[in-house]
Amino acid sequence: MSTLLRGQTAIVGIGQAGIGEAPGYSAMELLGQAALAAIADAGLALADIDGLFTATSSHAFPTLSVAEYLGLRPSFFDGTNVGGASFEMHLLQAALALQAGLCNAALICYGSNQRSAGGRLVSMSEPQWHEQPYRPRHPITGYALAASRHMHQYGTTRAMLAEVAVAARQWANLNPDAFAHGPLSVDDVLASRMVSDPLSRADCCLVTDGGAACVMVRAERARDLPAPPVYFLGAAGAQWHRSIVAMPDLTVTAAAESGPRALAMAGVGLADLDLVMLYDAFTINTLLFLEDLGFCPKGEGGRFVQGGRIAPGGALAVNTNGGGLSCVHPGMYGLFLILEAVTQLRGAAGARQLAKAEVALVHGNGGTLSSQVTAVLGSAAAH
């Protein structure tokens, strides 16, 4: 895997808006607020942005709509939409464009008012051709199928899945920006209303509003800007299917491909990682990604997370903001993973700040376990 991109670009600004509930604001307004916050955090002006990378659930032509709304005339733009993993892919695309000199300051942004809109956006892009006759509930039916298969094949239990939700809530309780706070036990998860067997309401991500954005520049420029730069070390994507019925193996995701390639580009191994941000739309996601990325053997994810291993104070820091399960999940969550990684690598995470945060893995997921994109970010110490 080429390492030519390693450390050549950096995230220099982050911003968010409307986390949780933001009644009265459109998806575009939340995106705009987050974008302006990220640009200000970078010490730049809107006029400095000449690269635009965005995907939304609301616009068929996202770069056109966002550029018009913000008043941008970008020299390079990309609206790749592979679901929630789009923004990890945008990191790679922005790094390529910056390194090629096609733009000088790249904005990656997203916004959704899904909660205020009554959750009506969740199924806009779901497939209809294979699955519709069976009347699935998108997207949870596909994830429930994967969870059921994992339980059947490897002896995973609902209590093991519940450990993921409990750990996420414990991290959220340390994050004042998280939407869900308060106690949550394994028994609470097991007693929660069943939505799609074996996944209960507590096994499912939140439905929130929220906007998020980050700004990337070349490394030499990053050193002159006010915020501590967080360097792009590597990224890779993989996709094997669109519809869950076409997934080759319900217990193996394309993260098994994207993860090793991203780590190779970054020149790091799993032992070098201080933080792991995984797209936890459902509790089964975390188990599958821990396995496919190599943290434990296939089938051992449920046992791996037991005993608080991924909770605060555990051996592996996973989803330190509270994840999609307890922090925020406005339809497409991938950019919020990046924001938390940057916050930790800057040393600015407050009560949840890790003692050592130099290298972070960020893994995005889109569709029904469909698109998988892994990115590796590092502080100046890792650069």
Write the layout of secondary structure elements.
Blueprint: E1 9-20, H1 27-41, E2 51-54, H2 62-70, E3 76-78, H3 86-99, E4 106-112, H4 140-154, H5 158-172, H6 186-191, E5 194-196, E6 199-200, E7 209-218, H7 219-222, E8 230-239, H8 255-266, E9 275-278, H9 283-292, H10 301-304, H11 323-326, H12 334-346, E10 359-366, E11 371-378
Parallel strand pairs: 2-3, 2-4, 9-10
Antiparallel strand pairs: 1-7, 1-8, 4-7, 5-6, 8-11, 10-11
Structure commentary:
- With 383 residues, the chain is an alpha/beta fold.
- It has two domains: 9-118 and 209-227, Peroxisomal Thiolase, Chain A, domain 1 (3-Layer(aba) Sandwich); 137-202 and 234-378, 3-Layer(aba) Sandwich (Peroxisomal Thiolase, Chain A, domain 1).
- It is built from twelve helices and eleven strands.
- It has helices at residues 27-41, 62-70, 86-99, 140-154, 158-172, 186-191, 219-222, 255-266, 283-292, 301-304, 323-326, 334-346; strands spanning 9-20, 51-54, 76-78, 106-112, 194-196, 199-200, 209-218, 230-239, 275-278, 359-366, 371-378.
- The longest helix is centred in the first third of the chain and has 15 residues, at 27-41.
- The protein is globular.
- The relative contact order is 0.20.
- The mean pLDDT is 95.
